[in-house]
Amino acid sequence: MLKGKEVVLGVSGGIAVYKTAELTRLLVKEGANVHVIMTKNAQEFVTPLTFQTLSGNPVSAELFDLSRRSEVKHVSLAEKSDLLVIAPATANIIGKIASGIADDLLTTTVMANRSPIIIAPAMNVLMWENPIVQENIKKLKKLGLKFVEPGTGYLACGYEGKGRLAEPEAILKKIKTLLK
Ligand SMILES: Cc1cc2nc3c(=O)[nH]c(=O)nc-3n(C[C@H](O)[C@H](O)[C@H](O)COP(=O)(O)O)c2cc1C
Q1: Whose CA is nearest to atom 6 of ligand 1?
Q2: Whole-model pTM?
Q3: pLDDT tens for each residue of 142-172
């Protein structure tokens, strides 16, 4: 179903990063060509090697990368993307995008991107319920970005409530709907 589709998968620094490894596998299984961008903080949770192996493509993380002189990474990734999905999306990355900040490879690629954007937030329930986070989400929804709502239940931080990353299958379903 996703054969020939170029999917840029942004990974930010939340505990749910491990679930994005499964999302990568599902996307590849569906035929998508997956290009993973990790924030610096995401790499504290899972190494790029995991995503490189699962996607079959190099993982990008550096905005200022001198290894490919002929290519400006954030522009080339944005240009080729049929869809950009961020999972997990931290409160921080949501806030940065909502404020128009472009200070790393992921946020700069979002700024240059013209394809549909899906955001799958994941965070502690106290962060999720923070009106600042909710206002940022409201703003991004108004601007046309799509969201996959987090689930409710036991959170890795020991709390109970809303903030669990949506299941990889649910995120895949949203991707398929938008790429139809
Ligand atoms: C163990 C641990 C787990 C974290 N989990 C989350 C999370 O699930 N969601 C979130 O928004 N922030 C989480 N954070 C905080 C982010 O890592 C922090 O805000 C960071 O600046 C995010 O950077 P990034 O958005 O550039 O990846 C966590 C931090 C730690 C130490």
Answers
A1: 14
A2: 0.96
A3: 999 999 999 998 888 788 889 999 999 999 9
- On whether the CB atoms of residues 38 and 51 are closer than 8 A, the answer is yes
Structural domains of the chain ordered from first start? 6-179 (3.40.50.1950)
How many Cβ atoms are within 10 Å of 168's Cβ, its own excluded?
Answer: 19
Tell how far the Cα of 14 is from the centroid of ligand 1, in angstroms: 4
Q: Ligand 1 pocket test: which of 20, 36, 45, 90 has the largest number of ligand atoms within 8 Å of its C-beta?
A: 90
Burial class (CB in 10 A: 0-12, 13-18, 19+), 70: exposed
Q: Is 41 a catalytic residue?
A: no
> Is residue 7 classed exposed, middle or buried when 0-12, 13-18 and 19+ CB atoms within 10 A define those classes?
buried
- pLDDT, tens digit, for every residue of 34-67? 999 999 999 999 999 999 999 999 999 888 876 7
Q: Which pair of tokens denotes residue 116?
A: 């549909």
